[in-house]
Give the backbone structure.
Amino acid sequence: MSSTFAQSPSIAPLIELRGITRQFGDQQVVRNLCLSVAAGETVALIGESGCGKSVTLRLMMALLEPTAGDVCWSGRPVADLNAGQRDRDRLRFGYLFQNSALFDSLDVFENVAFGLREISDLSETVVCNTVHERLEEVGLSAEICDRKPAELSGGMRKRVALARALALEPAIMLYDEPTTGLDPVMTGVINRLICQTRDQRPVTSVVVTHDLSTVQAVADRVVMLEPVSRLEADDRQVIFSGTFAEAVASPDPRVAAFVGNTATESRPATENSRSQGDPACQNHVGDGRSGFDSWQDRKWCTDNGQEA
């Protein structure tokens, strides 16, 4: 059976949320949410904590079922797919979890190889080559393959998690707070990896983040959500959709309060940073050999008795 995502992405959005509501018990987290993502687009989903950003990602991937409304993939409601088709199509998603979600008991190699082993009968040679290629793609060397997640710095864990997601060649990448807990240098590395992933393969991306440097560096479009608790009965949960420059200039005080202070401390946002050739999207990520991009990673290894 063919993939839902093989069907005319130019006719319908690759992902569309139609009047989605999701509640847990009596608490509504997402209410009547309408949002679409076009093929090849990179959308940054922003908003204060508790506005439903991470829940929205899970709804997009059908990891959660909506209380009301339809999630559509290439114009087709997910509810209309049988379980087998839904599970096959879900494999077209890659997901970078907020805390990386690596398996603590597995080494780096087996973490990256996990999906390949679970859903395919690839030979060990192909699995090995794929793991090494994906690690090199995110600036890590094969030398770390036998390390456990606890032996890695925070930035390295994020990159291993991204390599795992990319191993299955996803059509859609979902990033949940990809730079949370990272220092500014490693935040720049992750931003460049998001850009690199988008530019080197035909991938559609949705990035949930509080980090406006990430928004500026990677996003074609910014979507801001308002917490349901602050909405009037007829208010829409999406309170802004546009470029970052438009967000900075927005007359909506809620949008201005969220982006204004950070924007004034960052470089001017006169255009979408992607179209301006943002340096964060151009710099090479790592050397593909040592697997270290900053003195913070090297210092971590020195402090923990590892070789850089």
